[in-house]
Write a structure and sequence with these properties.
mainly alpha; single chain
Length: about 220
């Protein structure tokens, strides 16, 4: 852990610098001809969606380690990933309707991509509730939900290519105007670094909780003697 502190500090500083710089580039980026200023939500909406997906896969990876190897470290990764999935998923579900109101004239449509994204968020909310209130087998139940949630991610991504949908296609990013690419990639990179900073903080908290639980058990053992 000690050796990772400089790297963690650098990542934190990069995230802070990006969060300060990206809004300036986004404000200066060209306005999209049809939607105008509201299109700038794109620079937050898409990175949030990417990190929601990444969090789901991180949670699923930790859950697999816990289910098949009884890895406590995997379980800690799982819960940290789930919380980040819920956090960035909420960002997606808030920024999306703001954009939709201007683009489609309504806050919400039961479009395939929107519906499957909402389902993903609800699955990981259920993961957190299952861990807390699911009883003796809560962690294994939650881990199973994580695998189900991660399986929804590819469906979300390909949905716009398979079904008739009003949501923009996956070709939007490669076809961005030159003046939009820099702000977008800076925003995406900043959000990604922020994700790993938050993940590191969350894992440290879980390790500290595990250590406290061990100390409580040790104290109880001493009191029973």
């Amino acid at each position: 852990m000690k050796g990772s502190k400089p790297l963690y500090l650098v990542a934190t500083l990069l995230a802070v610098a990006g969060l300060l710089w990206a809004p300036q580039l986004i404000a200066a980026a060209p306005r999209e001809a049809t939607m105008g200023f509201v299109q700038k939500i794109f620079y937050y909406h898409v990175p949030s969606a990417w990190l929601c997906f990444l969090g789901a896969f991180v949670c699923a990876g930790g859950s697999i380690a816990y289910l098949f190897k009884d890895s406590e470290a995997g379980d800690r990764v799982g819960v940290a990933g789930a919380e980040l999935t819920v956090l960035f998923g909420l960002c997606v579900l808030v920024t999306g309707p703001l954009w939709a109101r201007k683009a489609w004239g309504v806050w919400w449509q039961w479009d395939v991509r929107l519906t499957t994204t909402l389902l993903l968020w609800m699955i990981f909310v259920a993961y957190l509730f299952a861990r807390r209130y699911g009883g003796p087998g809560a962690r294994k139940l939650a881990a199973g939900l994580a695998l189900f949630g991660a399986a929804d991610v590819p469906l979300i991504y390909i949905s716009v290519s398979i079904w008739r949908t009003i949501h923009p296609k996956t070709t939007v990013v490669p076809t961005l105007q030159a003046g939009m690419r820099g702000p977008f990639w800076l925003s995406l990179g900043t959000f990604t670094v922020l994700f790993f900073v938050l993940l590191g903080m969350r894992l440290q908290l879980e390790r500290a909780r595990a250590r406290v639980d061990e100390l409580h058990l040790a104290v109880e053992d001493l009191e029973d003697r």
